[in-house]
């Protein structure tokens, strides 16, 4: 009887400790937070900052340990946001594209440092587009286009602006149809969707396949990302969330019928978590592909990523060795390297960062233009990330504005 009682006590103790352990979300510094505390604090932040909807996913031990949605899918209808709803992925599109290109490079199908022009029979300025404003015709007299490589495109060092109709200081200029090279390719960092789009054009010509087909074959189908695509799918029709302005006004849904590596992807928090889980796993095992993605190609010393301060320099991020790889940002922490990618489009704001050496990370996806104002605190709260360069990202907390 004495042994039976002892066994029962031990059984109960082990069971309780396991429940307590499962209730804890681990952070990079070894500390933890309970799910209940995390839920309560995130909800308070969402309400305080007027964020329409936010989904938070945390990875522990290379798998999803926490995934929850807060707020609304459609503020006007007060529909609850769900983790399996389709979000406009914005620039999360680029991280998937970076993974695809790294696979191609690892297989010898593209040389990251070979000028893109050398893959083409036609000079880049002479490439014809259905939409004329997308062309590069005005670069005919700027021969620097011949120096641009795949590595430069994915590392944002082409010299191109983000988009030709947005100035380097962030001024919207809808009348502008011509593109410029602002500095010698490979010498500076300046985020550019135009560079990503050029690389997509070349990749499609090299392989004779469109981006959507490549993504389905190499990423979405193998990972079971059934609700992810670079073009709008009929199956998304009754399962998507709307974007919202800072005033929480609903933005009409914009659907895309042309795949764009720089920012056309639609995905769900559940699906994109599958992608991040795979990247954490590959990096944890020193994969050749993630070694290519996460090799730093350019150090970043700008005060901010966008706007007027993107042209000013600073040493504020020297302590984290802020850099860029193939479609992903890179930083150094006391707990290993961090690899991040953000997404920002009208009504949608996202951020992800992984720390493979600690086997953890976080994904924030929101359908609100106010969301970035709580990213700093959610990162610190959820995984103890105090290393993301929040000022450089312009993630200014709502209570500091």
Automatic annotation (TrEMBL):
Regions crossing the membrane: none
Gene source species: Tenacibaculum adriaticum
Lineage of the organism: Bacteria, Pseudomonadati, Bacteroidota, Flavobacteriia, Flavobacteriales
Alphabetized Gene3D superfamilies for the sequence: DD-peptidase/beta-lactamase superfamily (3.40.710.10)
Pfam families named among the record's database cross-references: Beta-lactamase (PF00144)
Domain Beta-lactamase-related: 38-371
Protein name: CubicO group peptidase (Beta-lactamase class C family)
């Amino acid at each position: 009887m004495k042994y039976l009682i002892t066994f029962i006590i031990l059984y109960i103790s082990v069971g309780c400790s396991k429940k307590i352990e499962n209730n804890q979300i681990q952070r990079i510094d070894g500390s933890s937070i309970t799910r209940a505390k995390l839920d309560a604090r995130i909800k308070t932040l969402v309400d305080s900052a007027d964020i329409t909807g936010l989904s938070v996913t945390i990875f522990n031990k290379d798998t999803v340990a926490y995934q929850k949605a807060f707020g609304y899918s459609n503020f006007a209808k007060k529909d609850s946001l769900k983790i399996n709803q389709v979000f406009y992925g914005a620039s999360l599109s680029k991280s998937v594209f970076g993974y695809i290109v790294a696979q191609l490079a690892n297989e010898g199908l593209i040389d990251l440092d070979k000028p893109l022009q050398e893959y083409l029979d036609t000079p880049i300025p002479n490439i014809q587009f259905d939409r004329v404003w997308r062309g590069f015709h005005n670069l005919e007299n700027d021969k620097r286009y011949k120096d641009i490589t795949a590595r430069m495109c994915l590392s944002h060092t082409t010299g191109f602006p983000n988009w030709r109709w947005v100035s380097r200081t962030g001024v919207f200029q809808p009348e502008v149809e011509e593109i410029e090279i602002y500095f010698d390719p490979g010498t500076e960092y300046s985020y550019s969707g135009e560079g990503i789009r050029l690389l997509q054009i070349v990749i499609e010509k090299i392989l004779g396949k469109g981006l959507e087909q490549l993504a389905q074959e190499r990423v979405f189908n193998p990972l079971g990302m059934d609700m992810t695509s670079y073009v709008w799918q009929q199956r998304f029709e009754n399962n998507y969330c709307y974007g919202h302005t800072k005033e929480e006004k609903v933005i009409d849904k914009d659907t895309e019928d042309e795949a764009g590596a720089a920012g056309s992807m639609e995905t769900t928090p559940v699906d994109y978590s599958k992608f991040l889980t795979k990247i954490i796993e590959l990096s944890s095992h020193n994969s050749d592909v993630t070694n290519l993605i996460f090799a730093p190609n350019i150090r970043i010393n700008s005060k901010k990523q966008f706007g007027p301060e993107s042209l000013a320099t600073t040493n504020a991020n020297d302590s984290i060795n802020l850099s860029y790889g193939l479609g992903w940002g890179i930083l150094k922490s006391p707990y290993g390297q961090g690899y991040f990618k953000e997404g920002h489009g009208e009504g949608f704001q996202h951020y992800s960062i992984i720390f493979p050496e600690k086997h953890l990370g976080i994904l924030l996806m929101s359908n609100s233009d106010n969301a970035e104002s709580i990213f700093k605190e959610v990162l610190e709260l959820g995984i103890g990330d105090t290393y993301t360069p929040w000022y450089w990202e312009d993630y200014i907390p709502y209570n500091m504005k």
